[in-house]
Amino acid sequence: xxxxxxxxxxxxxxxxxxxxxxxxxxxxxxxxxxxxxxxxxxxxxxxxxxxxxxxxxxxxxxxxxxxxxxxxxxxxxxxxxxxxxxxxxxxxxxxxxxxxxxxxxxxxxxxxxxxxxxxxxxxxxxxxxxxxxxxxxxxxxxxxxxxxxxxxxxxxxxxxxxxxxxxxxxxxxxxxxxxxxxxxxxxxxxxxxxxxxxxxxxxxxxxxxxxxxxxxxxxxxxxxxxxxxxxxxxxxxxxxxxxxxxxxx
Length: 249
What we know:
single chain, alpha+beta, Arc Repressor Mutant, subunit A, Alpha-Beta Plaits, four-stranded antiparallel beta sheet
């Protein structure tokens, strides 16, 4: 499983997913503005904007806030000029990490990110140092309980999925980014409920963490996601189920 979806699972176990609604609003508004700037303000013609608006609605963001963010992105209203950046580095235990950032001040952001990495036994690296270890794919995670595996495989592959993998307590459906929406809709229409569904960066290999390194990794992920400018964090780590239970307690 990709580090980002792994972290999503851990956050649910930690009870941290319901935190900081205002911070979530800030990040979603930034994403709406950037998506509208690069792809236009029509949600039907701009898949990235559509995804951002759906995320805003899932957080119960008022419609006026969404509309204002779109208009700021397209230039109809005056707004901050945000820049998209990608940072790469290493976490505890040599975990490869990639960060997606949206900022109006990259000097401030890089200083903040470097400080967070060093605080939790990681290091910020040069561009290209770990990106070769990740592939952009659609990822849909479905909990196993009550799921007919054969039916899920049939539905997912018929809709264009690349693979359906059995991963402990979950099934992972991977797709080409272009096929993600179609596969997701087919899976939902067939009655399968997902716990995670995004176009994400999937690691080609995984570093298994335990003990102090696992604890430091979780703290690093939490601190990075708590940064106003960091929108996505990816890492090629895995943590054993029993270790997750201990750290989530």
